[in-house]
Design goal:
- It comes from Gossypium stocksii.
- This protein is mainly alpha-helical.
- Helices cover 82% and strands 0% of the residues.
- The protein folds into two domains: 1-39; 48-133, WPP domain (Serum Albumin, Chain A, Domain 1, Orthogonal Bundle), CATH 1.10.246.200.
- It has helices at residues 2-38, 48-63, 67-72, 77-97, 106-135, 139-156.
- α2 (48-63) crosses α4 (77-97) and α4 (77-97) runs antiparallel to α5 (106-135).
Length: 157
């Protein structure tokens, strides 16, 4: 019977030692779960580092060979840098105007991305149209050229 008592006492002390360990572990789990429940993930506004990365990517897109540059031409890097900054700032302002603190920012981030794309396309299209207009003869020159050719045709006849 002494053996039974000593075995029971050993089991009781082993259980007593593991219970505080389990209780402490459970407390840590509960504390972590409470922290995670209070954790909110906000993706708006983007950090300055993220905004700088967007600007750098815009500069790269505007100034190097791409699908966009094949259609509209490349922009010198210094000009692309200033254009990229203004594109990003304008898109950030437009998107930020629609931000609500209760929002997680996903819709605003999508708006920001769309604004950047739209403004980038508007910029390259406008620049290409301006360059094309500068390369084309002016309307007066074209009209004078037509008159000359018409006159020479009449004179020859």
């Amino acid at each position: 019977m002494a053996e039974t008592e000593s075995t029971t006492t050993a089991q009781d002390s082993a259980t007593a030692e593991t219970e505080p360990h389990q209780t402490q572990a459970q407390l840590q789990i509960d504390e972590t779960a409470a922290k995670l429940n209070n954790l909110t993930l906000r993706i708006w506004p983007p950090t300055q580092r993220t905004r700088d990365a967007v600007i750098n990517r815009l500069v790269e897109t505007l100034s190097s060979q791409s699908v966009l540059s094949k259609r509209y031409g490349t922009i010198p890097e210094d000009e692309a840098s200033s254009l990229a900054k203004s594109i990003e700032e304008e898109a950030f302002s437009v998107a930020g105007a629609g931000f609500s603190p209760d929002d997680d920012g996903i819709e605003i981030l999508q708006m920001y991305s769309k604004e950047i794309s739209k403004r980038m396309l508007d910029t390259v299209k406008s620049r290409a149209a301006t360059a094309a207009a500068a390369d084309a003869p002016s309307a007066t020159e074209a009209a004078n050229g037509e008159e000359v050719s018409s006159s020479s045709v009449k004179a020859e006849a």
